[in-house]
Amino acid sequence: MEKFTTVTGIALPLRRSNVDTDQIIPAVYLKRVTKTGFEDALFARWRADPDFVLNNPAYEGARVLVAGADFGTGSSREHAVWALRDYGFDVVLSPRFGDIFRGNSGKQGLLAGQISEADAQRLWDIIEACPGVELTVDLVSRTARVGGLTVPFEIDDYTRWRLLEGLDDIGLTLRDEARIAEFESHREPWRPRTLPARQVRL
Amino acid sequence: MTDAPLLEERPRTLAEKVWDKHLVAKGEDGTPDLIYIDLHLVHEVTSPQAFDGLRLAGRPLRRPDLTIATEDHNTPTLAIDRPIADLTSRTQIETLRRNCEEFGIRLHSLGDIEQGIVHVVGPQLGLTQPGITVVCGDSHTSTHGAFGAMALGIGTSEVEHVMATQTLPLTPFKTMAITVDGTLRPGVTAKDIILAVIAKIGTGGGQGYVLEYRGSAIRALSMEGRMTICNMSIEAGARAGMVAPDAITYDYLQGRAHAPEGQDWLDAVGYWDTLATDDGAVFDAEVLLDADTLEPFVTWGTNPGQGVSLSDTVPDPSGIIDANERSAAERALEYMDLAAGTPMKEIRVDTVFLGSCTNSRVEDLRAAANIIQGHSLAPGVRMLVVPGSARVRIEAEAEGLDKIFIDFGAEWRFAGCSMCLGMNPDQLAPGERCASTSNRNFEGRQGKGGRTHLVSPLVAAATAIRGTLSSPWDLVQDGDE
């Protein structure tokens, strides 16, 4: 994962709340076995509407998505994050995220920053008054700046650190391999095992 | 881990006990805890990129003996003996088969008696047990919390993480008690409880929390009912839902293929008996719901929090104060093609879907069959009945339920996720309206342009008879029963 410090790019206003991951990427696009190439699937159903904000040429090349509350709820599909990344987004700002989506974001270098409802409104107003305006997201100071406005965003310390350092979770955990093995040596024998397969006796 | 003895002393919730028991390493300075995972369930959709990741890094699968896979999201529910017609679906299934072969994972493929929806398969095999941690690359993993397990839906990066390490770095959750006291009236079920809970706390109300369902109405539920409730915890935004294990849990488990036996069973029960939340334990939030007054509950909108009692009307968005909520409600009504003020019972449906990881167990099928027996399907309505697993299908057939559904005019299908999500051939046509026992009424969830009303199996059955959203109470008023 690349290190993430600041991003400056066009901001896209998505004035909708409860944007579930089925809307971010419909299930029909989940059949691929690769991790890339999902850009066309992003908001696929909504993009069929020519008035949908993603179709506005002023926002072409947008890198920061400013969305309403409860962004990324529902299905655990990490494809939602891949689709946002493939399209070119580096940051999503929202007053509240689905927990699984937020976790997935941090593992794919997509910054999910939590802002207040009032700040979402302010950002939307500025962006819509000047479509195509660039917004700067600074992970070090946890702020987003556009025009004369600077708003703080929240992100947990651990995810922030991993993004700043560009660290891979699995590699970090495997440093603790000895502790995992030690834990396993104490597991009770009656805990379930899938192998060998047992016959049903009902 | 140095503070473990202290944790033992203070009163703890069920969720905290399971967490503490699985602590491999305690996080310091804001880093997450490292939590051991007892059981990893795998399916075809969220795993291929994780297997690729293992291969690229040259990492082995740490514990094949704690991993099990099945095929469910893409699989057709008709003609399962023929090759899957959709090429991309077939590729995804074949990829899972190759990956399971390569990494030594037990796989229940289409045609196998243990194939089915991953959240039906785990419990039916007795692998889902109290006090374990279970994960799956699927948000409805919360289902398994019905056994008093900590069950988390995870993304594909986490799937790879569990494959490589059998652990997950996790930040401790907050806990929320959802206490449902009283007695459900006949015709009111677990599904109505959870739909009412989500309407009450909202789709974001559970974010960051593990929900523990408590109270006399929860204790009175079967394991199937508890699974329905825990299943939809994610629809309230929660990381997990749990119910403390009790005699009902043990009765369900004992004798299942992978349940402990002999002395192991006694040892396990000894541990499971310690799991219930201690008196004096403090929850971060509490919610109360009265079971006595609860009515059959249905959704009118495009998220699971947009629900009302079936006897109610479609709400008027202009009465909603919050501007975002109001515009969401307006959008939902437009998508659902509903006018504010319409009685829910006047809404006519085209399709009834009985199935999904929420409501496809044999008890669900039995309850619906009991309602429809002796009736016929409303003209112009189609009904799909999709058992949650091949074994559920066989059990239902042994009871003659298939014959009741077929005589009624419903389609009796093979096991899978089916019409819960638009990933396999079972989909709504644009504009079609469905009473569905599944878990999500999102735009296009059941097929592009499809309109979903979430309902219980009993409401699904009564709706199939009358053609409009109905509960068994309406059949009594019709003088049918």
TrEMBL record, chain A:
Domain Aconitase A/isopropylmalate dehydratase small subunit swivel: start-end pairs: 1-115
Pathway the protein acts in: Amino-acid biosynthesis; L-leucine biosynthesis; L-leucine from 3-methyl-2-oxobutanoate: step 2/4
Enzyme class label: lyase
One annotated GO molecular function: 3-isopropylmalate dehydratase activity
Gene3D superfamilies: Aconitase, domain 4 (3.20.19.10)
The keyword Lyase is assigned to this record: yes
EC number(s) given by UniProt: 4.2.1.33
Assembly and interaction partners: Heterodimer of LeuC and LeuD.
Family indicated by similarity: Belongs to the LeuD family. LeuD type 1 subfamily.
Described function: Catalyzes the isomerization between 2-isopropylmalate and 3-isopropylmalate, via the formation of 2-isopropylmaleate.
The protein's name: 3-isopropylmalate dehydratase small subunit
Lineage: Bacteria, Bacillati, Actinomycetota, Actinomycetes, Micrococcales
